[in-house]
Amino acid sequence: EKSGFQHFMLKEIHEQPQALQNLMRGRVDGGKAPIKLGGLSHCEKDLLAVKRIVVIACGTSWHAGLVGEYMLEELARIPVEVEYASEFRYRNPIIEKDTLVMAISQSGETADTLAAMREAKNKGAKVLAICNVVGSSIAREADAGIYLHIGPEIGVASTKAFTAQVAAFYLFALHILLLRHKTDPKVPEMITAINSIPGKIQKILDREEEIREMADAYKDKNHALYLGRGFNYPVALEGALKLKEISYIHAQGYPAAEMKHGPIALIDENMPVIVIATKDATYGKILNNIEEVKSRKGRVIAIATEGDEQIQGKADHVVYIPDAPAVLTPLLSVIPLQLLAYHMAVMRGCNVDKPRNLAKSVTVE
Ligand code: M6R
Fold this sequence. Notes:
Blueprint: H1 8-14, H2 16-24, H3 44-49, E1 52-57, H4 59-76, E2 80-84, H5 85-88, E3 99-105, H6 111-122, E4 126-131, H7 137-141, E5 144-147, H8 160-181, H9 187-195, H10 197-205, H11 208-218, E6 223-228, H12 233-247, E7 250-255, E8 272-277, H13 283-294, E9 299-305, E10 317-321, H14 330-347
Parallel strand pairs: 1-2, 1-3, 3-4, 4-5, 6-7, 6-8, 8-9, 9-10
5-amino-5-deoxy-1-O-phosphono-D-mannitol (M6R) is lined by residues 58-61, 105-107, 110, 113, 156-158, 241, 245, 358, 361-362.
Domain SIS: 43-182, 214-355
Organism: Kuenenia stuttgartiensis
Active site: 360
């Protein structure tokens, strides 16, 4: 069932173009509005009234929630907070009449997320779930939901669920935008943009060999730092989580500008720094961060936008990803990070599909 791939994780990384197509099928067909999200059709009135959104999730799903926060704020102009499910429940959270709680979970069985969701419901919140596993506890108990429709994810390290959750947030943000404004001149373009993402992911997957060679150069390191800004800050966190959970290399993700507030002290020739440096509003600032790392002898792997030659002379390695609107770049920038973690872990002889001490769904609190 691994379809010729050595591991489920690798198979699932490669399934991402198809998975996103499955997620979008019937929902943004023909590039036309409205966005059809069947699981929300009975609560459009509630969605119109929402004034604040609280996202609850754990691990990779929490990272997808952070991207969702940026998307919902940017596209739908609704204030969003993202909470670790485990923290949310013990904080006596503030839920008002117009607060929507969104529970994000691939498995739909994560105990912390389920408990947080029940707490939210007890406080009178409406809960919308984004789940992959159909009929899972979280999906069943939610008031409304969006299923990912991407097939089972077996590898403990979540990959295709992350990109699908991010894409689901994007569709949800467009859906809210259209509910509120009926039409919006930007929407057709935004739909075209997401429709072109699967093909762009495939282009990155076709560069796997390049990434494998890079993994070979870094596989014996003991630490790594991941930096990104804006939409790519959560991707830095996700890249670091992928590396640590399957290769057991200590890795940390940071918003790039935070480096100077502490982590810069760690940089020397043994510290690889993976920088997401795509061409967007903060590109110049990110180039400065790269220079700061280089001047302290750190090694830099840059994830950059195709056609960016300037970065070649600055970073030790450059992985190019196709251009896309900033809001959608996480769907692309995460792909080389998944492949890098995978190949480093395989080269270190780790069991990537079943890393030590971890289970696919964490059903204990
Ligand atoms: O099934 P869920 O999305 O609720 O799982 C949440 C986390 O346990 C999960 O994302 C975990 O962090 C993964 N192992 C990350 O790759």
